[in-house]
């Protein structure tokens, strides 16, 4: 394993120092591991907190700022943050109008956020949680821990953040967040697994002609192994899965996301295939993101997220946002 | 041998050492069907348990386990942090303020731990989780203790039970935790949480031996 | 080689289709391979054209937009564009006030841009060229083709673009571009070479404990091979080279750039080390970029670029920019 | 054999085929000390030369070479595009409007090509570039032609000269092009541009044989 790190133990602390130095708009609490807005919580506005394991950068810390998150709690690599840390983020986000927890559906995240919400309740901060679970690769049944929260989380954070900035109350913001999650589906394919620094080797091994279909964001193996194919086919496979689960039609927001080790030139090529597929099925790509938005360390591969747009969602998506990783309108 | 604060502390110390020694194995079990962090999580969590015990210097075995549980919750993260943390905390609470617990009392505490994990995580036997190691361990422990057997024998039986429970997870398809995302591909591997449970119970058996 | 592509031959065409679909602010001429502003050239303003081999995304196409480039000419992977193509970009950029060619110093780029400038002259478009050569890894002597243009090119494009947008004339814009190039130095280290799709295998092979010191942006070997070391040391080595060439002092703009295959979490850690080094040497990091800004396909590694700031450069750096890859202030 | 439009076209056709057949070798030479695209560049450039010749259907050997050069410049990119493009264009211009060039005229055309490359790229002999293959090739060609030797013999000598020039690039340290960035590490490898020059001149020798 070769990585641009000092040691596996120092990765998060070093990255947080770097984020603090790079972004004056952020307040980075190195001890509690909380990233919040430098200006503090906006009084009278609902605060948004998200968090989860590290290794998915720019998620979540890179989405802290005007129009998106109020604070983020980054855990160890691929490990959910701990309750006290989430509590500290929640307090940093609290502007008196309550706090929304945006939690990706993993047992560890759900449990730690639940504990943090109880602690917040003890301190009279009202918390509502929304659990994202947009991964169409996983069956949502009693035989699984449910679907994973993946790329759709970026949409939830952006759109709920815009609603909060507009002054919507906590239940409304939570309702919008849930709605975004419901109308979004994602699917991912990996070519080469990422390496957790502490583990020192890739999460799984693939032959030169193999891909991992339906992977999550933690270097975990997917539901099945497939044969390498042209990007036209890989994108088609992904959108077929998404479409079978929730029909892709009308105006959609599409993210073609890189897993961290795949270059932008390839992601643009993948996006071209996605647009062709969607138009071929009668849909229209009204808005898009192409790039590394929710990564898995240095994993090679891509994910596609598709969200159905309506006028409200479009307005909230287009609303100004000013964070390290997503910025427009100001 | 009695289960007092010193023994309880020795247990957590031995568990920490055992997990640390086997950290790489736990991690590679987790890499196969999860996300490859279980070794690091457990090592961090049990180290925090020890720190918390050292800071609070609890005088009863119950308080030792509560301190361990709080330390684990506060530093582990992941699924195992809240699960093991609650388990130790509830086991500690179950011991009450006794200065020295009997085998039967320790058995009840282990059962409380199991209940905590099942309530919080919603897993049952057969879901391929730590529950599959802890359930037979608790049953074996209580069977020996109910017959009036000594703590050492009960703990040895529990450790054996946990290891058998661990082995039994291999053919299971996971229905909880990250491994469940793999569906049928989760079959054929030991569950990492069951493996750490087996280590922790073996540590108990060795300490009270 | 596994890549998210259809075939090595279609990489550029596919990526351009994707860029066209992803960015309504861009006009993408698929036939001539020119990326320009959807609104056309701004009349009365100096136009900025850059270009070079593909594989460095977001450079250059991702920097087309308000406050930065007017048009870009992407060549084949790692191969400079051809004269006719550069001419087409030049015409798309021409708002009647002349066009600045920003050319990275490679024989191929210099020759093809020179030919394009002659063609433009035939069509009465005034062109001035600035050649960037900020790579401190290469000796600038008659024994080399001179220094390579690398990360500093991003600074040149941003700052010269701001000057053009302010209404500066061609010679002034060219002067500012040259000045930015002169006060900038860069250095790069690679951990794993990128793979050119047509070549099918990495540009060089490194053992598990080796790094390539002083690499360029084309997967070419560096000046020497070194031992893998903590990021603290790799950053220190890089800044020592830069500092020996041009002292790092006062207020500086720093870019810690990823080569395409290294994750953001590592780049933030590298940036933290860079800030510590610079502050330890009495400098101050007044502005920064951390991320993938000038890449080498899926190569793993980083580069550091350091530019001396003065009030003018700071103002031009902070001026609004609205491109796919760099955006602030509007 | 005379060097007419048909022979000139056959030369470019053979050069394209030779480069295509050896594309991987040229690329790996370039990967060692450059950026690994020389094979693709030459294949693309000479294919464009052929397309341009086919489109313009030139009737003199000079116009064939000019068309080839224009095609190369228009499609190759990189350092080799302008260099080879100008070389063919200047060689074509040097032939004037003769319908059939003598060995001596072809020799002068090759010399014009060499001059074009040196002017544009600024390289001299010993800088480890295509100049190191073309210089001895031109000299050998002209020596045979000056003695009244036939085109076939001159071209064969040129091809041999280019191959010797190529071999001579191995111990050189590059002072031009990308390979110069490697400093001393550029020593020990053939220069890719010299290798493609050798292929192109061998193609000429075979066509006029
Ligand atoms: N719902 C659950 N109930 C009981 N145990 C669980 C549950 N979910 C996961 N586990 C246990 O946690 C282990 C994984 O822990 P760890 O790797 O530390 O956390 P994470 O899965 O968050 O990375 C699994 O092997 C399993 O034994
Ligand atoms: N200044 C120069 N003069 C003559 N030949 C040169 C010069 N620079 C480069 N070359 C030749 O070009 C070859 C490389 O061509 P190619 O790989 O196609 O372009 P690039 O270097 O732009 O990738 C080198 O091997 C060398 O022979
Ligand atoms: Mg985890
Ligand atoms: Mg895990
Ligand atoms: Mg090239
Ligand atoms: Mg080359």
Automatic annotation (TrEMBL), chains A, C:
Protein name: Dihydroxyacetone kinase DhaK subunit
Residue ranges of domain DhaK in the record: 7-328
Keyword GTP-binding: no
Family matches, as PANTHER family: TRIOKINASE/FMN CYCLASE, TRIOKINASE_FMN CYCLASE
Keywords: Kinase, Transferase
Xref: PROSITE patterns: DHAK
GO molecular function: glycerone kinase activity
GO cellular component, one term: cytosol
GO biological processes: glycerol catabolic process
Keyword Kinase belongs to the record: yes
Organism: Jiangella alba
Domain of life: Bacteria
Automatic annotation (TrEMBL), chains B, D:
Pfam families: Dak2 (PF02734)
Keywords: Kinase, Transferase
CC annotations in GO: cytosol
Biological-process GO terms, alphabetical: glycerol catabolic process
SMART domains found in the cross-reference section: Dak2 (SM01120)
Residue ranges constituting the DhaL domain according to the UniProt record: 6-206
InterPro entries: DhaK_L_YcgS, DhaL_dom, DhaL_dom_sf, Dihydroxyacetone_Kinase
Signal peptide start-end: none
Transmembrane segments: none
Gene3D superfamilies in the cross-refs: 1.25.40.340
GO molecular function, one term: glycerone kinase activity
PROSITE patterns, per database record: DHAL
Protein name, as recorded: Dihydroxyacetone kinase DhaL subunit
């Amino acid at each position: 394993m070769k990585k641009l790190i000092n040691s596996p133990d120092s990765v998060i602390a070093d990255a947080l120092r770097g984020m603090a130095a790079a972004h004056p708009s952020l307040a980075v609490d190195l001890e509690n591991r909380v990233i919040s807005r430098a200006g503090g919580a906006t009084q009278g506005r609902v605060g948004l907190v998200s968090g989860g394991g590290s290794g998915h950068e720019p998620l979540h810390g890179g989405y802290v700022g005007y129009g998106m998150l109020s604070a983020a709690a980054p855990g160890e690599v691929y490990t959910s943050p701990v309750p006290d840390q989430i509590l500290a983020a929640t307090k940093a986000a609290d502007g008196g109008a309550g706090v929304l927890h945006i939690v990706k559906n993993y047992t560890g995240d759900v449990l730690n956020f639940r504990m943090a919400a109880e602690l917040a309740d003890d301190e009279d901060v009202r918390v509502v949680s929304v659990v994202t679970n947009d991964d169409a690769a996983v069956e949502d049944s009693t035989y699984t821990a449910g679907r994973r929260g993946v790329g759709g989380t970026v949409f939830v954070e952006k759109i709920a953040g815009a609603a909060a900035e507009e002054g919507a109350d906590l239940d409304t913001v939570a309702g919008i967040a849930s709605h975004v999650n419901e109308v979004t589906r994602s699917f991912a394919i990996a070519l080469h697994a990422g390496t957790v620094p502490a583990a020192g080797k890739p999460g799984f091994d693939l032959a030169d002609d193999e891909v991992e279909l339906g992977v999550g964001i933690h270097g975990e193996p997917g539901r099945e192994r497939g044969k390498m194919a042209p990007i036209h086919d890989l994108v088609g496979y992904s959108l077929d899965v998404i479409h079978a689960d929730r029909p892709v039609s009308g105006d959609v927001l599409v993210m073609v996301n890189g897993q961290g080790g795949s270059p932008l030139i390839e992601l643009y090529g993948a996006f071209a295939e996605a647009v062709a597929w969607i138009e071929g099925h009668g849909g229209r790509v009204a808005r898009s993101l192409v790039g590394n938005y929710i990564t898995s360390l240095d994993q090679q591969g891509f994910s596609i997220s598709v969200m159905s747009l309506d006028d409200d969602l479009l307005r909230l998506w287009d609303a100004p946002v000013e964070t390290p990783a997503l910025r427009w309108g100001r | 041998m009695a289960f007092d604060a010193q023994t309880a502390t020795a247990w957590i110390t031995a568990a920490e050492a055992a997990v640390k020694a086997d950290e790489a194995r736990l991690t590679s079990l987790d890499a196969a069907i999860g996300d490859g962090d279980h070794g690091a999580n457990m090592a961090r969590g049990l180290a925090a348990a020890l720190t918390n015990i050292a800071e609070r210097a609890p005088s009863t075995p119950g308080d030792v386990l509560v301190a361990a549980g709080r330390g684990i919750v506060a530093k582990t993260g992941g699924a195992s942090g809240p699960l093991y943390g609650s388990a130790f905390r509830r086991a500690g609470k179950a011991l009450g303020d006794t200065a020295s617990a009997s085998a039967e009392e320790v058995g009840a505490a282990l059962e409380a731990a199991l209940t905590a994990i099942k309530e919080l995580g919603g897993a049952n036997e057969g879901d391929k989780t730590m529950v599959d190691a802890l359930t037979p361990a608790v049953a074996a422990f209580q069977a020996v203790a109910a017959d009036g057997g000594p703590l050492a024998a009960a703990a040895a039986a529990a450790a054996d039970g946990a290891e058998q429970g661990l082995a039994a997870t291999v053919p299971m398809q996971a229905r909880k935790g990250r491994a469940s995302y793999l569906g049928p591909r989760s079959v054929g591997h030991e569950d990492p949480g069951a493996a750490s449970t087996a280590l922790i119970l073996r540590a108990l058996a060795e300490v009270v031996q």
